[in-house]
Amino acid sequence: MFAKRSLQLYAASVENIRRVTDLASLKAVAHPLRVRLLGTLRVDGPATATELARKLDESSGATSYHLRQLARFGFIEEDPEQPNARDRRWRAAHRYTSWTESHFAGEPEGREVTRWLRRRQRESAVQMAERFEEADWSAEWRDVAGQSDDIVRLTPASVRSLTERVHALIQEYAAHDAAAGDDAAVDAEQVTIFLAAFPIRGYLP
After folding, report:
1. pLDDT tens digit string along 115-131?
2. Which ranges in the chain belong to alpha helices (H)?
3. CA-CA distances (angstroms) from residue 73 to 92, 93, 95, 96, 105?
4. Are 183 and 191 in contact (CB under 8 A)?
5. What's the whole-model pTM score?
6. Nearest-CA neighbor of 56 among 82, 68, 38?
7. How would you class 157 by CB atoms within 10 Å of its CB: exposed for 0-12, middle for 13-18, buried for 19 or more?
């Protein structure tokens, strides 16, 4: 749910993407619990601080505080449909967060924050892959799930074009399965898709 500018989902609507251009906002979301809260709201939908505390094994005081910080910087908002007058339910304000790496490269703190977010994405990818290995999935899902890698020689412009085309294709398949209705929904699951592209100088096994 986080992406550098070149890796954002270009097929998404403008309203669906939070483009972060200031360091204060990027720092606000670069926090271990806040990034989990935001991701959970984006994937699972609106929830209260108490519900999120149970789901993430945190105290409701901690989730409540960090939800308010996310709201302060515009990452989440109050859900229009509240459960009652006592419990405040929150929802994600955007589906994706995007930033331009070079925009924050001019200051050490900016580089450190973007580095933390990239590291968090990599850790999340490993955790989700390991969770898949530990769960009981059908043979069909086990045959199609997994990862692959390749090393090719490309220019920055080609990498940008490649990621744009891949993300557009992802949205095309998501729309196709959504339009298929109940027949496709029987076999559909939430699928996490990771795409990374880094230049290297020499192969590092």
Report:
1. 999 999 999 999 999 99
2. 23-29, 32-44, 49-56, 60-72, 108-134, 139-144, 156-180, 182-185
3. 12, 11, 15, 15, 21
4. no
5. 0.80
6. 38
7. exposed
How many Cβ atoms are within 10 Å of 94's Cβ, its own excluded? 21
Tokens of 107: 């200051």
The structure tokens listed for 123 are: 């850790």
Could you give the strand order of the β-sheet that contains 47-48, starting from the edge strand earlier in sequence? 47-48, 89-92, 76-78
Architecture field, domain 2-147: Orthogonal Bundle (1.10)
DSSP state letter for 88: P
3-state secondary structure of 94: coil
Contact 45, 80 (CB under 8 A): no
Q: Which amino acid is at 14?
A: V
